[in-house]
Amino acid sequence: MKTSIATVTISGELPEKLEAIARAGFEGVEIFENDFLAFDGSPADVGKMARDLGLTITLFQPFRDFEGMPEALRGRTFDRAERKFDVMQELGTDMVLVCSNVSQAALGGIDRAAADFRELGERAAKRGLKVGYEALAWGRYVNDHRDAWEIVRRADHANVGLILDSFHSLSRKIDINSIRSIPKEKIFIVQLADAPLIDMDLLYWSRHFRNMPGEGDLPVAEFTEAVASTGYDGFFSLEIFNDQFRGGSTRKIAADGHRSLIYLADQVRRKVETPIGIEMPDRAAVTGVGFIEFATDEGGAVELVDILRALGFRKVAVHRSKKVTLYQQGDIRIVINVDPLGFANAAYAVHGTFAYAMALVVDDATQAYARALALDAEPFAEPVAEGELQLPGIREVGGGLIYLIDEKSPLGRFSEIDFEAVEQEGEDEDAGLLQVDHIAQTVAYDEMLTWLLFYTSIFETRKTPMVDIIDPSGVVRSQVIENQTGTLRITMNGAENRRTLAGHFMAEKFGAGIQHLAFSTDNIFLTAARLRAKGFKPLPISPNYYGDVEARFGLEPELTERLKAENILYDRDEQGEYFQLYSGTYGEGFFFEVVERRAYRGYGAQNAIFRIAALKKQMRPEGVPKDAV
Amino acid sequence: MKTSIATVTISGELPEKLEAIARAGFEGVEIFENDFLAFDGSPADVGKMARDLGLTITLFQPFRDFEGMPEALRGRTFDRAERKFDVMQELGTDMVLVCSNVSQAALGGIDRAAADFRELGERAAKRGLKVGYEALAWGRYVNDHRDAWEIVRRADHANVGLILDSFHSLSRKIDINSIRSIPKEKIFIVQLADAPLIDMDLLYWSRHFRNMPGEGDLPVAEFTEAVASTGYDGFFSLEIFNDQFRGGSTRKIAADGHRSLIYLADQVRRKVETPIGIEMPDRAAVTGVGFIEFATDEGGAVELVDILRALGFRKVAVHRSKKVTLYQQGDIRIVINVDPLGFANAAYAVHGTFAYAMALVVDDATQAYARALALDAEPFAEPVAEGELQLPGIREVGGGLIYLIDEKSPLGRFSEIDFEAVEQEGEDEDAGLLQVDHIAQTVAYDEMLTWLLFYTSIFETRKTPMVDIIDPSGVVRSQVIENQTGTLRITMNGAENRRTLAGHFMAEKFGAGIQHLAFSTDNIFLTAARLRAKGFKPLPISPNYYGDVEARFGLEPELTERLKAENILYDRDEQGEYFQLYSGTYGEGFFFEVVERRAYRGYGAQNAIFRIAALKKQMRPEGVPKDAV
Q1: What's the complex ipTM?
Q2: Widest pairwise Cα distance in chain A
Q3: How far is CA B205 from the centre of its chain?
Q4: Minimal Cα–Cα distance from A578 to chain B, Å?
Q5: Each residue of A57-78: pLDDT tens digit?
Q6: With an 8 Å Cβ cutoff, are A76 and B43 in contact?
Q7: Residue B456: closest CA among B358, B377, B520
Q8: Can you identify the CATH homologous superfamily of domain A286-421?
Q9: B2-269 has which fold?
Q10: pLDDT, tens digit, for every residue of B432-485?
Q11: Which residues are involved in binding a divalent metal cation (chains A, B) (predicted)?
């Protein structure tokens, strides 16, 4: 796929934008006129800057309110176009985007518009330029690509073609198959944007909510497939208006854009015969969480081990060459890394005790790693002692690590090569914890889409709709990335301000990270009793909660009493029942959760406010838990 | 007006919310159930807390999915209601809000619903409780207050009544006159909310965008007038779901809510005979800006005076007892306050050189002051020397000052009592500056509604629609408060992040404030020439801008050349033409503007990005202007 992006998509001043676009791997760039106007170099300077960075200027845009003007305004409109042609020639681009007229003065009429474009095509041809026509979803008369295409067809000029934009077509639910009959040489360029499905005014939606393909809910892959089926092999160019992107990191947003196009091309390549995608392995199916690794120091380890023991974990192995210890219960492995050398220690120095890495078990780690790299993931490797295992690793969005392990390395880094088993200390029962149920990442709200694209493009997962969690100090947006089998579930909480529990955690940790780990049990009451016996102190839940839960679900009073006695939260939906038990907070807001699912697939979103209120109460007044286990 | 507010409207935990609600002056509070559930005191504790603060609990809400349930679910629904009645009795409130059913299980049918309410009324009556029914705009069968009213009418029970909510009725554009025929005793309580007019899904709009009456675009005053016309004299209660409020200052949002109700009652009182409003003077008509006062120190004053002189100002008077100097040109008065005592000095200590105060000329300062205080404005007065004038003053939202002056104090604090004229230094021409055209306030985006309500409720002004200004580092929301005659124009720029020019200014100044002052001339070219002669250095505008302006408006090349030579920005709309000339930045981003209006009423929003790009360029790289005059 030939990739391009409009400068309006990202923040910054023009030179900064171009640099980030080139660095992200794009081949082309659309110059959004205002970016150029606000810049004080000449058009030639901009053109040189782009070329020096290896970028083709795919488009100069937009040229507005052109077609169908009454005679009194028509002459000036063409004069205006000639002035833009001057700029284009200086810039060194051969194409201008003309978007459908929104002026009150416009007259309408397909033939009138076609005649205008024929004349514009003539003028453009004299200079070796091309004119692309795009139907805005809110154009005054033309707001459908089928009408724009009819105008282009009647204009019947080699230098006049159609520009398709996924947002404009998909937001109006125009039949995408109508694209398949357009001759590929008449599609001059294709713009892409996705958006969350919120029913609202099209212009408002477009101006504020667009996002990268795959980040929203529109069928952009189907749209692209329809385009590819024509044989079109030109540029696919991102044109995204999004308030978050406009205030976000120039480089990160550009990188997301590039990743979104590679992923999109890969999806389309699998459906139609097209040269637009590059070969890469399938999205990696995750069959489980191999381990979660904490970075800490000796003192932090003592505290952490206390909690793990109260949760029923036992030390099972120690690393042969590093200060790394493995705790286990059921299929849950927790690694504590206090080695003074290496990445873990560096992470600890910045973030404090931190669940900085996790291993995902995939069918084929080599393939998964290859896919991740094809999707611009940053590889990670650390020196290992001779003979020890080197797991393929990648950096996640927040800077933490994801190791990829598979059946060829069944124990991952806990193989006998690296680790030595330790004698079991007595015959304590465990607490019945079985697996990692889900991993809760706290992230900056502005970066939620980045995380989402990262996980969904590399791993076989889907995203669930965003849910608002009401923290007493502000809204926290929550979204889940999960696979069909439930073997990978990541909840992402996007914090907008640092007064929320999530925001506090992120501020204190200097960045995004895992804020809590949920482990599964198949008998919550048994687990609760065993935890109690081990001295585990659950998070106290308000008694008022239980009165409501009983009334809401019509629970037997006996069950309510048991829930209340153990501080267990309850939820139920059409599928089944859900039980949640929380620990208090540890450090700046990290905590553990134990859940039992009875055919339930959600995450107890309704209970989140009660959990947050209880945690906040515990952290008050000094931001330090009163009752950490 | 008996004022109430739902706890869901503001942020914080329940005790904090109740305290802020009482402090803001509300008489009543609706307990939003989740706020109570997350709190770990008993219902009786909550009731006591409210009563100790002098608050009546007007409502317990919401009770969902009640009416029209099939037989299999009906029993449990009533059980659930009885449980809530228990809570209400403990809380000490006599009314519950039942919102129309949204459950897929609900059956519909007016008579079925009426029968359910009759039974619920019977049960409530046994306990001395009342049931209010509200039509949600997205109710499954009932989504119109007229239908809810028909159900209440057929339920025909003294303990069952209607709850009206302005958002639910106005969002669906239901004829408000339908309220006028409802008997007042059947309206149990009235909830109020406004919202900006954005066409979108009703539920999404309601959950995220509601705001205080007067802050949005819905005809809430007309709605309230219709309610008042029935003779209703119960509580008017704010129920607002707003993402900003949920993350905002608990006290400030509560205070805004109280102000919004007082203002609303005042509007309604003027239209219908009703006891709901209190007597207060009319909104104050502003006839001009009396002066702008800067707080600074001796060193800062030297710099500031240099700029003022380059702009053509002259020193005209000095204060008799304070280190305060007056500069003037045309009808523009700039006061420089370097007095080591008093508020100005305290403001300077925190914010640096700062336009911390302004005087607005009104018809009757005493009346305007009385209105401001009736609307909860905080009065301000500073000790003055014996015999000197004491101007009535109020604090504005950001903590700065607004003095109110009128014809009875024609020169305000520049009367001969306080000031002594100074000899004019030579015969220098001024620059032709005539008046303050507008005052540009930079504010936190989260507080824009607070500012808007402050100005529009006290002064005879209107707000214009919000406009997005694209700063290279993020979106800045801009909104104008102005009067019909143009004698008061305040532009507010709401910054969401500190990387924008506006956000940088606010971060460096430790708060909101006046970021630029625009002065009017009736001959921009003459003024530009005179400024040049005085050594004023205008903000350099990108040459690219002029190529576009010429093409866009079809300007004569000669005019374009003149604009470009003087770095003047140009705009035109249906009404007329606009010319803008900027200074460079001073300090952390303060600047001046000179404008000429030829029948033009806007603010050149299209030019803002070019101005911002030029200012940012000037401030780079050290955040300090390269070329301050």
Answers
A1: 0.89
A2: 95
A3: 19
A4: 19
A5: 999 999 999 999 999 999 999 9
A6: no
A7: B377
A8: 2,3-Dihydroxybiphenyl 1,2-Dioxygenase, domain 1 (3.10.180.10)
A9: TIM Barrel (3.20.20)
A10: 999 999 999 999 888 999 999 999 999 999 999 888 888 888 888 999 999 999
A11: 134, 165, 191, 239
